[in-house]
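Supplementary notes (optional reading)

For those who missed the lab, this is the record we used. Protein: long-chain-fatty-acid--CoA ligase. Length: 671 residues.
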Amino acid sequence: MIPACVWRKQRYVQFARSCCGWPPPSNRASELWHIFQRRSEQFPPPLVLLPTNMYMWLTAVAGLAVLVVSYIRNFYPYFGEDCAYILKSLRLGLRLIRYKRSRPFYSILDRFLDAVRTHPTKTFIHFEGRAYSYAEVDKRSNKVARALQAEARLKQGDTVALFLPNEPSVVWVWLGLAKLGCPAALLNFNIRSKSLLHCFSCCGARVIITSPELQESVEEVLPTLKEEGIRVYLLSDSCSAEGISCLSNEIDKASDEPLSKDLRSNIHVRSTALYIYTSGTTGLPKAAVVTHERVWAASFVQAACGSTAEDIFYINLPLYHSAGFLIGMIGAIERGMTTVLRRKFSASQFWDDCRKYDVTVMQYIGETLRYLCNSPKKENEKNHKVRIAIGNGVRSDVWTEFLNRFGDIKVRELYAATEGNIGFINYTSKIGAVGRVNFVHKFFFPFTLIKFDIDKEEPVRNSEGLCIEAGETGLLVGKITQRSPFIGYAGNKQQTEKKRLPDVLKKGDLYFNSGDLLRFDHENFVYFQDRVGDTFRWKGENVATSEVADIVMMAQCILEANVYGVKVEGHEGRIGMAAATLREGENFNCTDVYNQVVNYLPAYARPRFIRIQPCLEMTGTFKMKKVKLVEEGFNPALIRDTLYFLDSETKTYIPLTDEIYEAIISMEIKL
């Protein structure tokens, strides 16, 4: 680069030489300089004075750059988004490394306390018309910690079970426990009796904290809790039940002064922070061990999706689940943002809440977007400030309808598991994909797809005993390393070992078995296919239940469908069956449903039996339960619900009678 003063001197020499040679006569030099100055003012100097051939080279380079940009846009349309996401991921990864190496360990609690110091009056939680600031939540948590310290004699490392509804008390009770160095077990407030005792015993807690609205559920198992010496505390001023202690008065009397960091001095990145339970779609819930490292990693999801401290985050999912608690509430703490918390999801009030609180980021899971799309249409549907939706489990058709009805919202579909060591984020606008593969992700968190035998429900292995890598579709497995560990389930060694898959690509390696079938396409997008337990095999073919359910719900009369496979005596594999609910005012249209499944599904995938139910049983996160349905089968003598059978001869669905059932069992009717 040539300074402007040098450029002027060079140009003046050229100008003087063209006029009268160089150097000019002294009597002409001054005159020529003034003329040159006037011309220079009209034509200011460029930054660089280059020879003519260099300008030609620059023109060529510029043209090449235009061609390269055009090529990238045509053949690598996601190049810019890939680069932006990779850079963002690397920055977040470096932050996590810094937190892990800090002494003392910098936890998400410390992040919260920093937010309290930075903006104490900023609203942290909106709940049912009440706003709680960061400072107020901090003080409440101090009081809870001191009350539990005095009453329950808690010490660092003691696990406490929280059996609480979706309300702010979950947050400050958890923060109070974190200040004492105590991990919390987040119990599903919908579970009862046997499941409640099972979940409680998994985590090894000796204390349970509950609320008045769940008191009856606790009293059902209170005799067992008392026998085991479990202390029960109620967030209430009074309680008549023997064996349950009230905690609210003690909390009110306690000091709200900060607690010493020495109370959690032994906490480190691999310490247990939480126990979060799986949904229980295939049996009793399992307590996934969530370390502080995993808490940090989950909290970064919001940042990876584009959320900022200025956003307002809407949480309508249960806080006992990783989506609502880790991605939602903990993610909000990491960002230092404001949250809007609801007791439960409401499709009719969803957009009113978003407008009332100026929500900019929403959360969804399972069927929540479909519930919104099924709600009555209104003129002001696009009158909101929501710009990002974070979640998982939305079908492509619902995704499209959601965007058409409610505006240009960036849907960030995720794939992850509470206990898993591999996950994906669809950071583009590609509808239907749950993520995208890039080389940086695979380098730091190795994973692959392997072939899976549906009948044997185990990976396919070669003659050397190693797994076989699949093509586009296969079982997702993530390599267990120090950077991507799999901790397992508390109190369930058998299920933990079941998730560990040895000798995958070479002898001695160890992978996490996700239990999910995924597909990678030619553009490196990731698509969820089905869960291994949900996929069944019939007539030598694999049937993906989610795909069949989508087709069944295309029938006008069907509102929801839960597809699964049932055993039939004398037949290999499992035949397709669907439990379905009907739209309001609709009757089961045998012909329409038959036409849908015949037109869009191969013979082996068509559900031969349909069970009409008033509602489908689901988990707290809208995942359909199948185990009980599979066990009950299709015997009309044992099932009160109306059953239908796909009759190939009459080409329609007909009521399943005892006579037809006996004919199927005796193999008089061929399936």
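If you only remember one thing from this example: The chain has 22 helices and 30 strands.
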